[in-house]
Design goal:
The structure is a homodimer. Chain A is an alpha+beta fold. In chain A, 30% of the residues lie in helices and 39% in strands. At the A-B interface, strand 1, strand 2, strand 3 and strand 4 of A face strand 1, strand 2, strand 3 and strand 4 of B. Strand 4 of chain A pairs antiparallel with strand 4 of chain B.
Chain lengths: 115, 115
């Protein structure tokens, strides 16, 4: 998926992460358009907490969710099911999806004035 | 961190993931060299299961570990502590680190002959 170049603002743990790592096949084959649609659609789902995404050879998309039920509901959304099917048929030569419970989180952000 | 463009071959869950998401400051400032050293060093740690990494504006590195003790040991490795300090001082304008227990995983890989 394409994503905004941003770090997700997630609440205090616990919550869930779906780590989706992929290698693409050659050519676009409708991937770009579907990827943008999915990014819009996922953000509208109940329980969605944020998404981070980067591609650099390997693509990594991490979506954060309130709970497992929210992940399961998103998996069954009709347009998303289609995207999952096309993913296997056309877009990915290899992928791994991992569902994980975030137990601890910390971060750091420089003040805007600091360089 | 720079990483190989590959999807980690992890065992059956449960295991742990450390999801490190970051935005870089301007300039290299020794980051590239340290990043390569860390990628080599982390792979030698007890309990290390694999790493996936991509940068595309936002950088996402996911390291997989056998258990929480392995993560804690890696956090305290001297050279890694130095890298963590430089990360805050020089390399990152913003980062988030999330420690998560992988509960479920699935994947897909096209046969080499299939296109």
């Amino acid at each position: 998926m394409s994503g905004s170049s941003a770090i997700a603002r997630t609440p205090e743990p616990p919550y869930y992460a779906v780590i989706f790592t992929s290698l693409r096949t050659e050519g676009d084959n409708g991937y770009g358009e579907m990827s943008d649609r999915m990014a819009t659609l996922v953000a509208q789902q109940p329980g969605f907490l944020g998404m981070e995404s980067a591609r650099d050879g390997v693509g990594i998309t991490v979506c954060y969710w309130k709970d497992l039920a929210s992940i399961e509901n998103w998996r069954k959304v009709e347009d998303h099911e289609l995207a999952q099917r096309f993913g296997r048929e056309k877009w990915y030569s290899h992928f791994a999806a991992r569902i994980a419970k975030v137990e601890r989180a910390y971060g750091f952000e420089k003040a805007a004035s600091a360089k």
